Amino acid sequence: MESIPPPVRFTLGRQSSMAPDRCSGSESEDEEIDGLDAIDPRVRLMFFSSEGNLDGIKELLSSGTDVNFKDIDNRTALHVAACQGFCDVAELLLDGGAEVDPKDRWGSTPLADAIHYKNHDMIKLLEKHGAKPLMAPMHVKNAREVPEYEIGATELDFTDSVDITKASRHHVSVQGTFTIASWRGTQVAVKKLGDELFTDKEKVRAFRDELELLQKIRHPNVVQFLGAVTQSSPMMIVTEYLSKGDLRLFLKRKGALKPLTALKFAMDIARGMNYLHENKPAPIIHRDLEPSNILRADSGHLKVADFGISELVKVTEKVKPEKLMSYSDTTWRYVAPEVFRNEDYDIKVDVFSFALILQECDLLTSFQSNRDYLILCFLHLPKMIEGCQPFSTMSEDDVPKAYVANKRPPFNAPSKYYAHGLKELIEECWHENPAQRPTFRKIITRLESTYNSVNRRRRWKVRPLRWFQKMETIWKKEGSERSSRDRSSHL
């Protein structure tokens, strides 16, 4: 079997204009030339491009070497030639089928590199071949107009970057990909956004407004926005990184939660959502509230995530969707029926989603006896282990039809096992009529009352048990001392 060459990083000559540790030249170029024939021909192509060796390039291309080969940083031979300013090399590569606008790992293209290094003839050549300037849609010419939340692309270190998926965090959506990076010595989550999202001035303006709003959001149950890269492409959103993952992963690993834990989680989510809904001058609708968009902090508390960027909606009363929302990369299982029907909607769509999450988290809240607990474990084992999603046995396409028909996920446990009022709260939150659903402020009040009730009942059960255990220890100790005295008296 033919061995696969290990990934390489080409470090000779000028580096990418967007690389964090950009440097020019290398002290070991002569050393690199020794044994050149033994080097991967694709790497030799990059080396010859950095040296301006036309004959070497022609020989490699005629032997079938991939002209679009990318190193570990996604740099191509054309990137190298553009940095060095070798127009004849670039012409040869382009005639050989080289892509004119490939992006390296930092988002730089050959044209962007040529512009950075002021290689004017190279700029003209690339533009003649169709290269387009790499300009962020929000780029401003006046330095005074750069927003205060701006983070320079070079401040983000992607050396040991890892893509985050919803299975490990929350962080993938159709609008961008989240990656772990380092910013000023701290791990952060970075969401890269494609320029195709900003196809007109109206979308750019709306996005700018959203970023200004995100900058002001501060709440312990909301993931913290740290800044954004808007003056270079790709544009990026930087938020705090929570290494403990999302609620979906936690539920799959833990199954049904303990009563107090489930209620604490519910209050965390409700407080974060209440903060967003009571934002001034206009509320913020999440619209994609589900377990994979709720993250766990090191403290054990939950934080609402992914409420911003593409899904952020500022409203005064109602939102009228222009078209049915696309959920190709998330799930329909937590979305309110009015959204499926393409009707006007408001903040109550998030309350509907919350009801489904609450039911999923808070299955069992009290038991009359250990025997009851064992019976319930046996009858509802799959749901308890998996923390099943709403209508878990139903196909994704059938869930919207069920919601529109006013069907809701069944309660697998008998009513007596739910804390007083909890089941009723869930049913109110997923009410067919959005106006009948409570606000998160009211939800918090009711959850706090339920939590205090469960906690008091738990203390009432635990304290007598501890008292009897303590008394048992005292009785045993007194019995032991009495026996010792009796033996001593006989002696």
What does this entry look like structurally?
This protein starts with 28 loop residues before the first helix and ends with a helix. The chain is an alpha+beta fold. Strands 1, 2, 3, 4, 5 and 6 form a 6-stranded antiparallel beta sheet that branches. Strands 7-10 form a two-stranded antiparallel sheet. A two-stranded antiparallel ribbon has the order 8-9. α2 runs antiparallel to α3, α6 (110-116) packs antiparallel against α7 (120-128) and α10 packs antiparallel against α17. β5 and β6 form a beta hairpin. The chain contains 17 helices and 10 strands. Helix content is 41%, strand content 10%. It has helices at 29-33, 41-51, 54-62, 77-84, 87-95, 110-116, 120-128, 201-216, 247-254, 259-277, 337-340, 348-361, 370-379, 381-386, 398-404, 422-429, 440-490, and strands at residues 156-164, 172-173, 176-183, 186-193, 225-229, 235-240, 284-285, 294-296, 302-304, 313-314. The chain is elongated and about 105 Å long. It has 3 domains: 29-128, Alpha Horseshoe (Serine Threonine Protein Phosphatase 5, Tetratricopeptide repeat); 143-240, Phosphorylase Kinase, domain 1 (2-Layer Sandwich); 247-456, Transferase(Phosphotransferase) domain 1 (Transferase(Phosphotransferase), domain 1, Orthogonal Bundle). InterPro entries: Ankyrin_rpt, Ankyrin_rpt-contain_sf, Kinase-like_dom_sf, Prot_kinase_dom, Ser-Thr/Tyr_kinase_cat_dom, Ser/Thr_Kinases-Pseudokinases. Keywords: ANK repeat, ATP-binding, Kinase, Nucleotide-binding, Transferase. Residues 1-32 are annotated as: Disordered. Residues 158-451 form the Protein kinase domain. Belongs to the protein kinase superfamily. TKL Ser/Thr protein kinase family.
